[in-house]
Amino acid sequence: MEHNSLYLLISFNSKVMSDLSYKLEEIRLKTRKLCEEFEKLRIRNVFLESENLNLINKLSKKQNKIEELKSDKELIINAKSMNELGLNGKEGRYKINELVRGIDKCIAHLNE
To answer: By C-alpha distance, which of 106, 97, 59, 61 is closest to 79?
Structure first.
């Protein structure tokens, strides 16, 4: 009888160890998959951060271009207004140069 008990105990322990080994292997596989997925996501994140910086730079350039165009538009409107006021060419050029200097000062302040 003692022999049977010992056999059952060994058999039971063998089954438990087999189950534990199987579970451990499952955990290893899942961990490996998680590590691989993490690496893929890390690489994707680096790419997206780079793309985001690129888009921020493009947006900044577009905003600067818009400001330049607004300034040009204002200059054109002022030039037309001077012509309508009857300012001659010399007075008009002087006024335009004065406005351009003002715009240049504004741009210099923006660049600081």
So the answer is: 97
